[in-house]
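Lab notebook, design round three. We kept the backbone fixed and only want residue identities now. Task for the bench partner: fill in a sequence for the structure below.
Input structure tokens:
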């Protein structure tokens, strides 16, 4: 029940009209960027730290010392860039359940197959393709 509430909140925060990028999963990664523009690590850090957009710090701890009350339900983001490639991180952001069906990580760039999503937010991803790329760009810097 808490996961559904989180998914609804995440969907509501990213409720502006966005188009889903097409992608291909190879193994445990999405090798090709979702957006034409290169991801910006500074924008990605801002998204991760933003409690109204990404809500990453609700579950994760990250090396963002100015943000208090970070989560401990999910892996620490420190060292993320040393553990996973950009493609592996991209897949985890787009839809972690493709790797781990029981994951509580929300799908940030998916709209199909979701249940109990409010009418105003149906068909709208939490992150745009560019925002996914920005977060990936930040996460790969965490070595």
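Proposed sequence:
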């Amino acid at each position: 029940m808490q996961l559904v509430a989180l998914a609804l909140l995440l969907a509501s925060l990213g409720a502006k009209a966005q188009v889903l990028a097409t992608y291909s999963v190879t193994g445990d990664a999405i090798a090709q960027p979702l957006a034409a523009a290169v991801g910006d690590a500074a924008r990605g850090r801002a998204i991760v730290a933003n409690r109204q957009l990404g809500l990453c710090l609700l579950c994760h701890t990250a090396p963002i010392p100015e943000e208090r009350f970070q989560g401990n339900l999910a892996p620490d983001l420190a060292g993320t860039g040393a553990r996973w490639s950009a493609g592996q991180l991209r897949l985890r952001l787009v839809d972690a359940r493709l790797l781990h069906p029981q994951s509580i990580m929300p799908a940030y760039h998916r709209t199909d197959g979701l249940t109990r999503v409010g009418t105003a937010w149906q068909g709208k991803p939490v992150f745009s393709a560019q925002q996914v790329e920005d977060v990936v760009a930040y996460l790969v810097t965490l070595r």
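Keep this in mind before ordering anything: Helices lie at 2-13, 41-49, 56-59, 80-83, 86-95, 129-139.
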